């Protein structure tokens, strides 16, 4: 019954490029690949935290129960390895992440350098 007026048609076509531009822009929601990477990273960090806590607990147990009698000495190096491993793993992951960021900076297109103006040239 009611037909669209020309002003409504123009408004719809005027907002259409805006909607298309919004569709072309990256969305704020993470993609499924990013979400999977986040879950894997979270699981790895939780496992590393668990290993470190187990190492600390093993050392505490040895210190409270066996230190005075010098028994169960195998618990000391095992506890130190379990306690220290997550620290080195986190440091290596951090270092590799920093290197990746620097690599992205190095591959960025360089801005062409222009010659300084003649009055600012220090050699003259």
TrEMBL record:
Q: Ranges of Polar residues compositional bias?
A: 1-18
- Could you list the residue ranges that cross the membrane? 40-62, 74-95
The UniProt record lists the keyword Repeat? no
Task: Indicate whether Lyase appears among the record's keywords.
Answer: no
Q: Give the span(s) annotated as Disordered.
A: 1-32
Keywords per UniProt: Membrane, Transmembrane, Transmembrane helix
Q: PANTHER family in the record, alphabetically?
A: OS04G0577375 PROTEIN, OS08G0113900 PROTEIN
What is the name of this protein?
(wild Malaysian banana) hypothetical protein
Q: Which organism is it from?
A: Musa acuminata subsp. malaccensis (Wild banana)
